[in-house]
Design brief:
Elements lengths: L10 E8 L1 H12 L4 E2 L5 E7 L2 E11 L4 H9 L3 E7 L6 H12 L3 E7 L9 H9 L4 E4 L1 E3 L9 E3 H6 L1 H5 L3 H18 L2 H4 L12 H13 L3 E6 L8 H10 L16
Parallel strand pairs: 1-4, 1-5, 5-6, 6-10, 7-10
Antiparallel strand pairs: 2-3, 3-4, 8-9
Length: 262
């Protein structure tokens, strides 16, 4: 029986860290209804983004684990997904995990959950990332409403590229989305590319160019992309696409202790 040849560039080794109940739910959703191997709350999924199939290896890490365990597990991770609770004002252990990731230059994404709860807040999750030294939080999605009015997420890159998507937002939602998109472009693009003389606000940047800049800045630890958890209302595809687009393959991880397998 022959063994399958896998291109290392197509591999993503991802550790999901946060409150154990939240991380278990996220990992189960990542594995649910997709081709997978593994048992419990770790395994492998195949996912195609931008016409290329990737292998995503997923492991779970509780932020309640002893500090030594957090340190050891994060240090050898290729990429991290920090699961944040929109209803919690502070989570010191998750903040510790983010600082460890910064200390060891581990690329990370942040996933905000609980946006449909009455006490949910999105801005304080973004500020939590900003208050930990290192990466600048970069919202790629913002919630469309909060609490009982939560209707899903607005994808800022799609909105910036497609006028029909932007036209689907009205009033305060559209103004807020445009402000967040302007911040995204200003953060990842240089001054010349972000603005066009005589045109108010940022230029419309092609999605592929933004993906490239976000990937580069995530790899070097300058930014931490932030997404909204909408899997109760839609598919987990946006998170899987973000994992593939922005987190590094084993070949792009600098630390010598990293390997192709856990």
């Amino acid at each position: 029986m022959g063994s399958e040849v896998i291109e290392p560039q197509s591999i993503r080794n991802v550790t999901v860290v946060g409150d154990p109940d939240a991380t278990t739910r996220v990992v189960h959703r990542l594995l649910r209804d997709l081709t997978r191997t593994g048992t419990g709350v770790s395994g492998t999924v195949r996912w195609t983004t931008d016409r290329t199939e990737h292998m995503i290896r997923i492991a779970e890490l509780s932020s309640r684990a002893p500090i030594a365990t957090l340190e050891r597990s994060i240090r050898v991770a290729d990429g991290l997904i920090a699961v944040m609770d929109a209803t919690a004002k502070r989570d010191p252990r998750l903040e510790t995990a983010l600082r460890i990731a910064d200390d060891h230059q581990v690329a990370r994404l942040c996933l905000v959950t609980g946006l449909d709860h009455p006490t949910a807040g999105f801005g304080h999750c973004v500020r939590t990332v900003a208050d930990t030294h290192g990466a600048v939080p970069l919202a790629l999605q913002i919630p469309h409403g909060l609490g009982t009015e939560f209707e899903g997420a607005v994808d800022l890159i799609s909105m910036g590229e497609s006028e029909p998507v932007a036209a689907g937002l009205a009033g305060n939602h559209r103004r807020a989305a445009e402000q967040w998109y302007r911040h995204l472009v200003d953060t990842v693009m240089d001054e010349h590319a972000a603005a066009t003389p005589g045109v108010p606000g940022p230029s419309k940047i092609p999605a592929g160019r933004l993906h490239h800049r976000i990937r580069y800045l995530t790899h070097i630890g300058d930014i931490a992309p932030v997404l909204c958890d909408t899997t109760l209302r839609s598919h987990i595809a946006p998170l899987l696409d973000a994992i593939v687009r922005y987190l590094p393959s084993p070949l792009h991880v600098c630390q010598p202790e990293h390997a192709l397998d856990y």
